Amino acid sequence: MAVSIRDAKRSPDDRKWIQGVYPDYLSDLAMLNTGIFPMLGEHGHREPDLLGRWFADDRSHPLMIVKDEQPAGFALIVRPPPTPQARPAIDYRLSEFFVLHKFRRLGVGRDAATLIFNRFAGQWEVTEYVRNAG
After folding, report:
1. Distance, CA of 74 to CA of 13 (rounded, Å)
2. φ/ψ (deg, to 5) at 27
3. Cα distances (Å, whole numbers) of residue 25 to 9, 15, 82, 90, 119
4. Helix, strand, or coil (residue 73)
5. Rounded to 5 degrees, what are φ and ψ at 25?
6. Which residues contact 111 (CB under 8 A, 6 or more apart)?
């Protein structure tokens, strides 16, 4: 029951899978009622443009989260541009992180996060919405 991560830029199938579950991710975010994440389709479908940038930008690392050879989620790691000297340098930002409902509460997210942090050593920026109890 191993969890692994892989570079989604290497596989057109991984990209299609992420595109297919991205609406579920947005729906989960919209249910948090933050006002930050609109309901899917509320402002038109901009997902193809957004996801296209993930796969075209050299500073982004879209990753597949895999559990027992099955796609279980995705993560987007970004290398932010250099910051002014007054701020601490950040090497990586966890921009997106999603695990399918059927894989939640099984340690998949924890294991994937550990693999990601070990693979990309450096200073991290990770933010979370405080009302997201999960």
Report:
1. 13
2. -65, -40
3. 19, 15, 29, 26, 24
4. strand
5. -60, -45
6. 3
Distance CA 46, CA 79 (A): 22
Measured distance CA(95)–CA(62) in Å, rounded: 10
Nearest to 93 by CA among 101, 85, 83: 83
Digits of tens for pLDDT over the chain (134 positions)? 699 999 999 999 999 999 899 888 878 777 765 555 444 454 455 555 677 788 888 899 999 999 999 999 999 999 988 766 656 788 999 989 999 999 999 999 999 999 999 999 999 988 876 666 66
